[in-house]
Amino acid sequence: MGGPACLDFVNTLDDRFSAESKELLQHYVDLARFAEDTRILSDLQVDRLMTRSMQRPEEAKRALASAIQLREAISEIFYALVRRKPVPAASLVILNQHVQEAAQHLALAAGRRHFEWKFESDSYDLFAPLWPIARDAAELLASERVEYVRACASKTCEWLFLDESKNHRRRWCDMTKCGNRAKVRRFYTRNKKTAVP
Ligand SMILES: [Zn+2]
C-alpha cells in the first residue's frame, strides 16, 4: 500500500476479522517478498535471504513464526488504539522484545548530510526483515502521527493505514479498492429505495 511498513505488515493477514481471513505469509519467501516490495531491505539482501532460507528451512520457519508473532503484537496495539481500547500489555512486551533485538543490529552510518541509522545490510540473518518492521512500529507509536492511524471503514476490509490527507478524514484504505465499492453499494441501495413504490 505504500504506507508505513509496520501497518502494511499487519495487513498481510487479509480479511483479518472475517471467518475466512487469508494468510499472505505462508512461507519464508512471502516474508522476503514483503521486505522487497516495501523496500525495507535491499534487493541484494532479499536475494541472499531467499537463498539462505532454502539452505536452512528450519531456521526460516522460526523466522517466519517470529515475524507472525511480531505482526500480531503490532496488530493488537494499533487496533486497540484505533478503537480507543486499552493496549494489551502482553503485546507491548512482545513488540519491545523485537525492538530491542532490532537495536542490536542497528548502527550509525555516514550519510550525505548527516548520519543515519542503518540496519546491517550485509547480514544473512533470516530474522533481518523483522528489524526494520519492529523499529518502524516503534517510531510510529512514539510519534504524533500515531493519532492518524486508521482502520479502513469497509467492514470486510479494516486494513490499517496512515491518514496523511490534509483534513485527516480519509476513511478507506484505498479509494479504488474499498471506497468505490462502498460508493457503488450506496448508489444501489439508494436506487432500490426510490424504486420501491
Ligand atoms: Zn479497505
* CATH topology-level name: Jann2411-like fold
Question: Strand fraction band?
Answer: 5-15%
Topology as a string of helices (H) and strands (E):
HEEHHHHEEHEEH
As a whole number of angstroms, the C-alpha radius of gyration is 19 Å
Low-confidence stretches: none
CATH architecture descriptor:
Orthogonal Bundle
The major sheet is characterized as: 2 strands, antiparallel
Count the domains: 1
In CATH's first tier, which class applies? Mainly Alpha
Task: Explain this structure.
The protein has 197 residues and is mainly alpha-helical. It contains seven helices and six strands; from the N terminus they run αββααααββαββα. It has one domain: Jann2411-like fold. The chain has helices at residues 5-10, 28-37, 43-55, 57-82, 89-103, 130-141, 175-195; strands spanning 13-14, 22-23, 106-110, 115-119, 149-151, 160-162. Strand 3 and strand 4 (115-119) form a beta hairpin. Helix 3 (43-55) crosses helix 4 (57-82), helix 4 (57-82) crosses helix 5 (89-103) and helix 5 (89-103) crosses helix 6. The structure holds zinc ion.
